[in-house]
Amino acid sequence: MITKGPRGTKDVLPSEAYKWNYIENAAREVASGFGVGEIRTPIFEHTELFLRGVGETTDIVQKEMYTFMDKGDRSITLKPEGTAPAARSYIENNLGVDQQLKMFYITPCFRYERPQAGRLREFHQFGVEFFGAAGYSADAELISLAIAYLKKLGIDNLKVNINNLGCSECRKKYNDALKEYLRSNIDKLCTTCNDRFEKNPLRIIDCKNPDCKEVAKDVPLIIDYVCDECRDHFDGLKGELEALNVNYVVDPYIVRGLDYYTKTVFEIISENIGAQSTVCGGGRYDGLIEECGGKSTPAVGFAIGLERLILTLEAMNIEVPKPMGPALFISSLGDGAKIEASKIAFELRCSGISCERDLLGRSLKAQMKYANKLNSRYVIVLGEDELKQNKVNLKNMETGAEEEIQLSDIASIMKARI
Ligand code: HAM
To answer: Can you state the subunit structure given in the record (predicted)?
Structure first.
């Protein structure tokens, strides 16, 4: 059906685009305040990047990627997330010369998931990645950036949940304990999880299959298996979050759905947007750059789902400021006046003053109705008389006040008013 977009996609209509502009501008402002520069990576990457980066046993790679062969017989994948592409670019462009590098992106992502409220097949992320810093201060600064952003939008009641997934050494010990626990229930797991049992048992914990969820309910917790260094890192982070007055809760059940995480993971939850309540997810990923072929580089990041953010703003009745109407609406009657309206509109628009006029040949009454609908701040009516006398009434639509001005002065008067 060509008049219906693909399932799981959503148009942003002109009437609601202002919300997107608002949250994206706020993201840019907050990022800039934290010294974070923008990166833009392609919409598609070599499939291999996500197999290696996100992990072959994750749901994203196994079930959700939009992967296809291009005309040159290369396997290409639409990005399901922004971290692996940022890491690829970091390596390719030798960005490690800056020892401390912070970058953000606003990007569409694609996952073949079952659509529902807050879950789409094309969605958008505001993501932030810090490369080069191994200490917990980077984790704390990153989490505080997410909070500063949400606060700027008027959202200050979200739950911040953190957990510690340890390093590869802790993971080995934990995997043994986890397999020990799962072994007796292996026949209850889905086929994908049966396969995960040997390769990556941690993934069984966040499988969405209800039977697997039931088995995973009482698994041993990774936070009880972390080494001293990972524990110290986590304690340091908690201390710094407390110093920053960040209200966090340790949630030992967070494992996250991507394989690259080490040590800190966190999620920020909105309790009033339904089942898909995780607005922000992130964590440390000290092994990813090396996994993708670069020099061992510590890193930490997060991504906020912008559709879920908008749902949260709506659920909390937070008004996003509506864009102002045009500074001037030029109504016109007759062909001569139409050309004059076109000239004035062009001059004003070129000097940055917004201006609107009728393009449909509507009656004067209908033009005034349209000017009102647009919330125009000033209105003039141009007819043959106004042109002849070079005079026009400038009406302030807010106060109703009218003044007669020289038509030839309209541009300079509007520039002075706006
Ligand atoms: P993620 O948890 O997979 O992490 O996604 C981050 C956020 O994207 C989620 O919390 C959610 O708000 C949004 N999101 C995910 N899937 C969908 C969907 N199908 N529809 C709507 N929104 C969705 C990552 O992607 C990591 N790259 C985050 C990260 C950055 N970790 C380190 N750096």
So the answer is: Homodimer.
> b/e map of 248-277 (b: 16 or more CB within 10 Å)?
beebeebbbbbbbbbbbbbbbbbeebeebb
SS (H, E, C) 347-381: HHHHCCCCEEECCCCCCHHHHHHHHHHCCCCEEEE
Report the pLDDT averaged over residues 359-371.
96
Tokens 């390093």 belong to 167
Which residue has a Cα nearest atom 32 of ligand 1?
A: 301
Question: Is the CB of 281 within 6 Å of ligand 1?
Answer: yes
Dihedral angle computed from the Cα positions of residues 312, 317, 323 and 324, in that order, rounded to the nearest 10 degrees: -170
Q: Give the closest residue to 209 by CA, choosing from 395, 350, 59.
A: 59
Query: Which tens digit of pLDDT belongs to each residue from 141-189?
Result: 999 999 999 999 999 888 999 999 999 999 999 999 999 999 999 999 9
Indicate whether residue 240 lines ligand 1 (CB < 6 A). no
The predicted pLDDT at position 74 comes to: 98
pTM of the entire predicted model: 0.95
CA distance 308 to 117: 9
Is 248 annotated as ligand-binding?
no
Q: Taking all residues of the chain, what is their mean pLDDT, rounded to a whole number?
A: 96
C-alpha 40/C-alpha 249 separation (Å) is 33
Distance CA 404, CA 392 (A): 6
**Distance, CA 287 to ligand 1 centroid (Å)?**
19
Any atom of ligand 1 within 6 Å of the Cβ of 85? no
* pLDDT one-digit tens code per residue, 264-302: 999 999 988 898 999 999 999 999 999 999 999 999 999
Pocket probe mutation, ligand 1, options 12, 41, 109, max atoms within 8 Å of Cβ: 109
307 lines ligand 1 (CB under 6 A): yes
Domains and CATH numbers, the chain: 17-167+226-315 (3.30.930.10), 328-417 (3.40.50.800)
User: Exposed, middle or buried: residue 198 (CB in 10 Å: 0-12, 13-18, 19+)?
Assistant: exposed
CA of 228 to the centre of ligand 1 (A): 30
Q: Give the whole-angstrom CA distance, residue 54 versus residue 125.
A: 16
Cα of 220 to ligand 1 centre, how many Å?
25
Q: Give dist(CA 168, CA 261) in Å, integer.
A: 10
